[in-house]
Design brief:
Layout (H helix, E strand, L loop, with lengths): L5 E4 L3 H12 L7 E4 L3 H11 L2 E3 L2 H5 L4 E4 L6 H7 L1 H7 L2 E4 L6 H8 L5 E5 L9 E7 L5 H12 L2 E5 L5 H10 L1 H18 L4 H21 L4 H7 L6 H11 L2 H23 L3
Parallel strand pairs: 1-2, 1-4, 2-3, 4-5, 5-6, 7-8
Antiparallel strand pairs: 6-7
Helix pairs in contact: 4-6, 8-13, 9-10
């Protein structure tokens, strides 16, 4: 990634994880500037990563090549409008990591014809194992796409999407997905305790089993279905457990849950971008 000047508006957890990933990968800290109304956050980021800071977002937008808007969705309109004049002059590629804000709304708030990449990262980005879906509008150049991809790859894997509507499915899968796995882990721990293990042992074995399964899936070219079959001996314990899950409709539960999350993502986009 070329050493473009990257600006962050918002210094919360996701911005901090992106900045940390960039710096740990060798990106020069003096090419990163953060703006936030919270002076303590700015001090923390500067002390921890050596980056620049400012409380003037409009000046920041005039000075950067990549402008990351890392604010809560309900604050996005006011933030985008506050930097619209600067963005029109400088034309940085604007990266939005706010859930539910469509590109059309961002373009309107920024004054139009601004290169925008909308992203849907997830919370494992905080430990550099994130999964991010990206969608670019027509004003984003190939070089800018490469720059944004390198930015997000500092905290995990990235996938470019052909249509913006796919971000609703990404939100339902990888955006909300960590909570699904946490709920499964929580349930497995409780079941293991009922089966006779103490809480500490149940928790450790659940965590390592989840990690091991994920690593096996990542290391293999086979589908999850094939891997499942390989660890399911006919007439064995795993087969008995999987039969119970199938009979209780586990696959249908996941389907309904993901579709419900996708539909809620669409509803939130309608609510947040209507002005």
């Amino acid at each position: 990634m070329n050493t473009q000047h990257i600006g962050f508006i918002g210094g919360g957890n996701m911005a901090s994880s992106l900045i940390g990933g960039l710096v740990s990968n060798g990106y020069p800290a003096d090419k990163i500037t953060v703006s936030d109304l919270d002076a303590q956050k700015l001090t923390y980021l500067s002390d921890t990563f050596g980056v620049n800071n400012t409380q003037d977002s409009s000046v920041l937008a005039l000075d950067v090549d990549i402008l990351v808007l890392a604010v809560k969705p309900q604050h996005m309109q006011s933030v985008a409008e506050s930097v619209s004049e600067s963005s029109q002059k400088k034309k940085p590629v604007v990266v939005s990591i706010a859930a539910g804000i469509r590109v059309e709304a961002m373009e309107r708030w920024l004054g139009g014809k601004v290169p925008i990449v909308r992203c849907m990262p997830n919370t494992p980005a905080l430990v550099k194992t994130g999964a991010t879906g990206l969608y670019a509008n027509e004003f984003v150049s190939d070089d800018q796409k490469d720059q944004v991809e390198s930015l997000l790859r500092a905290v995990g894997v990235t996938v470019w999407l052909g249509t913006e509507s796919e971000l609703d499915a990404v939100t339902a899968l990888s955006g909300s997905g960590p909570a699904y796995f946490f709920m499964m882990m929580e349930s497995l721990e409780a079941a293991a305790i009922d089966a006779g293990l103490d809480q500490k042992t149940a928790q450790l074995l659940t965590q390592e089993t989840a990690l091991g399964a994920a690593k096996m899936a990542l290391a293999s070219s086979e589908s999850a279905g094939v891997l499942r079959e390989r660890v399911t001996s006919p007439g064995g314990t795993t087969e008995r457990a999987l039969r119970v899950m199938s009979e209780r409709g586990l696959a249908d539960i996941f389907k309904q849950a993901v579709l419900a999350a996708r539909d809620r993502s669409i509803e939130l986009s309608d609510e947040l971008g209507g002005n």
